[in-house]
Amino acid sequence: MFAYASRTRPALSAPRLLTVVSRPDAVPPPLLMLLGMVSTQVGAAVAKQLFGSTGPGGTTTLRLGLGALVLLVMVRPALRLTRRALGLVVAFGVAMAVMNLTFYAALSRVPLGVAVTVGFAGPLLVSLVGSRRWTDVAWAVLAGTGVLLLAGLGGVPADPLGLLLCGLTAVGWAGYVLLGKAMSGHVDGSRGLALGMAVGALCVLPFGVLTDGAGLLDPRILVLGLGVALLSSVLPYSAELAALRRMPARVFAVLLSLEPAVAALVGALLLHELLAWSQVAGIGCVVGAALGATLARREDS
């Protein structure tokens, strides 16, 4: 674990990532998006190395708990909320807890690229459901084909429980997106995110305590957990929000579609998770479906 930490230290102290936090407007928006995606997936790779000490439940608790603490200090959100806003914040936090807990549990069984791609397919398919355009049906079929290839259709066996957890991640991710959009109409983004993450941390806390409650207080584990929280939550959220303010939403969506490909690349480089050609094709199908749906909608508008 110490060897891995030393190998990823440059990612934690990279000047460009520090610039994202201190002066995000000095970085071009596309580069901000790329740095945010790389930061998220490097954080997931670091988290995977923590599983031997804290398990997925403990790692999720550290990520959400420490991430919420950092955001609450940064944002200092007012706690007075309407009943409607409070309900949305709680629901958003529960969705965040489900998404993160099942994602880390899936990571203990399947490669990073597979877990991210299947999870990413959740909100993508939700966005295509109910569309009356035949092109969106085609993109949904392409995304579904990609998921099937990752599930073993291409001849590469996949862990059944791992795939089930990936499916739950997709459900949680879809809920996270839908509830986040609903919540933004009642609570501003940074405030809602900080409060929602605090709710999510409380939801996963029992899983962390049951896994290794005392181990979560180990200084070395806390430092690595803080690194995961910063890489997977604080830095990418800051980068994406700053980028979204300075680029059209369609361009933002196009760049975000590359997330599964970035995850597969980070998994190969940092975790040595080399995927079979059928799995690479599955990731390509999901990325292609996301890009195609986004570009087609821009042409229609």
Topology diagram in text:
Layout lengths: L1 H12 L1 H8 L6 H47 L7 H25 L4 H17 L5 H20 L6 H25 L4 H24 L6 H27 L3 H8 L2 H12 L6 H24 L1
Helix pairs in contact: 1-3, 3-4, 3-8, 3-9, 3-11, 4-5, 4-7, 4-8, 5-6, 5-7, 5-11, 5-12, 6-12, 10-12, 11-12
Write a short abstract of this structure.
83% of the residues lie in helices and 0% in strands.
Architecture overview:
- InterPro entries: AA-Vitamin_Transporters (IPR050638), EamA_dom (IPR000620), EmrE-like (IPR037185).
- Residues 161-292 form the EamA domain.
- The chain is mainly α and 301 residues long.
- The chain has one domain (27-300).
- It contains twelve helices and no strands.
- The protein has helices spanning 2-13, 15-22, 29-75, 83-107, 112-128, 134-153, 160-184, 189-212, 219-245, 249-256, 259-270, 277-300.
- Helix 5 (112-128) packs antiparallel against helix 11 (259-270) and helix 11 packs antiparallel against helix 12 (277-300).
Index terms:
301 residues; mainly alpha; 12 helices; 0% strand; globular; EamA_dom; membrane
The percentage helix is over 70%
State the end-to-end CA separation: 50 Å
Radius of gyration: 18 Å
Shape: globular
Number of domains: 1
Q: What letter string, H or E per element, gives the SSE order?
A: HHHHHHHHHHHH
The main sheet comes to: none
Which whole number gives the mean pLDDT?
84
Beta fraction: under 5%
Kindly name the structural category.
Answer: mainly alpha
Number of strands: 0
Number of continuous helical runs: 12
Runs in which pLDDT lies below 50 for 5 or more consecutive residues are: 1-20
